[in-house]
């Protein structure tokens, strides 16, 4: 069984930024304050929008860099926060992406328009550098990842890093919906693209990491700390 609380290392937009406000309004949840927020006017008119966004609401508007994990024996929350602060102080190239709204399988997410080596490197560094804090996967948690549906490489990553979508399998995305009926895909994709275009955001710096905590199974994740990354050009 999973250890609780669980922690995750995510990218979160800066609190109060246009991107944070957009994501919070789409999901109806502010992952920094831990408060419910009103849906945007356009999505609030969709009768089942709360149901459509139920799954991503539990995680908040984010991009995963190190997937949720219980702490390994002898490690504490304060140890993890100290390690994140140290990581953030290491000079590095700050990824910049041109954001677009696209489908990923049956859900819709904000993703980079094209590949980014610096973003892939940041994600890989997070996976490696924070792995000492991760408790080993239980048999139950491993089964929950449905390894029978994964490729051999993904199973190898699951067993080595506790998550199958890392390293060359990593795809940066900020989820906006749960799994959708294909018949509604085009309608909702057009709506979300229109809502995002209205923000005027055409570039996003992946310039911070955040530590989030989930206190019990089924509880929502909440940000407990954010650390701005130090640019190599600083």
Description of the structure:
- The structure is a single chain.
- The chain is an alpha+beta fold and 234 residues long.
- It has a single domain, classed as Cyclic Phosphodiesterase, Chain: A (Alpha-Beta Complex).
- Helices cover 33% and strands 21% of the residues.
- The strands form 4 sheets. A 4-stranded antiparallel β-sheet has the order 4-1-10-11. The protein has a 3-stranded antiparallel β-sheet with strand order 6-7-8, with helices on one face. A two-stranded antiparallel sheet has the order 2-3.
- It is globular.
- The N and C termini lie far apart (44 Å).
Distance between the termini: 44 Å
Enumerate the strands of the largest sheet in spatial order, edge to edge or round the barrel. 4-1-10-11
Mean pLDDT: 96
CATH arch. level architecture = Alpha-Beta Complex
Helix content: 25-40%
Strand content: 15-25%
Q: Rough shape?
A: globular
Number of domains: 1
**Main sheet properties:** 4 strands, antiparallel
Instruction: Compute the number of helices.
Output: 9
Oligomer: single chain
Number of strands: 11
What is the rounded Rg?
Answer: 17 Å
- CATH level-3 fold name: Cyclic Phosphodiesterase, Chain: A
Structural class: alpha+beta
Level-1 CATH class name: Alpha Beta
Output the CATH homologous superfamily: Cyclic phosphodiesterase
The helix/strand series, from N terminus to C terminus, equals: EHEEHHHEHEEEHHHEHEEE
Salient structural properties:
single chain; three-stranded antiparallel sheet; four-stranded antiparallel sheet; 9 helices; 11 strands; Cyclic Phosphodiesterase, Chain: A; alpha+beta; about 20% strand; about 230 residues
């Amino acid at each position: 069984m999973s250890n609780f609380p669980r922690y995750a290392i995510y990218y979160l937009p800066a609190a109060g930024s246009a991107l944070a406000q957009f994501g919070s309004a789409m999901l109806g949840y502010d992952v920094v304050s831990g408060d419910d927020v009103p849906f945007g006017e356009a999505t609030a008119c969709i009768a089942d929008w709360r149901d459509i966004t139920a799954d991503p609401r539990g995680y908040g508007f984010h991009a995963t860099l190190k997937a949720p994990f219980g702490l390994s024996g002898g490690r504490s929350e304060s140890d993890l926060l100290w390690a994140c602060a140290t990581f953030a102080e290491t000079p590095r190239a700050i990824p910049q992406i041109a954001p677009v709204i696209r489908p990923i399988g049956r859900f819709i997410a904000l993703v980079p328009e094209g590949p980014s080596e610096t973003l892939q490197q940041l994600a890989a560094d997070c996976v490696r550098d924070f792995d000492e804090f991760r408790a080993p996967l239980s048999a139950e948690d491993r089964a929950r990842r449905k390894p029978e549906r994964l490729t051999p490489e993904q199973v190898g990553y699951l067993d080595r890093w506790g998550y199958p979508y890392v390293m060359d399998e990593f795809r940066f995305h900020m989820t906006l919906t749960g799994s959708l009926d294909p018949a509604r895909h085009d309608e909702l994709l057009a709506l979300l693209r229109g809502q995002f275009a209205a923000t005027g955001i055409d570039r996003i710096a992946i310039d911070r990491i955040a530590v989030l905590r989930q206190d019990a199974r089924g509880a929502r994740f909440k940000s407990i700390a954010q650390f701005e990354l130090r640019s190599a050009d600083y």
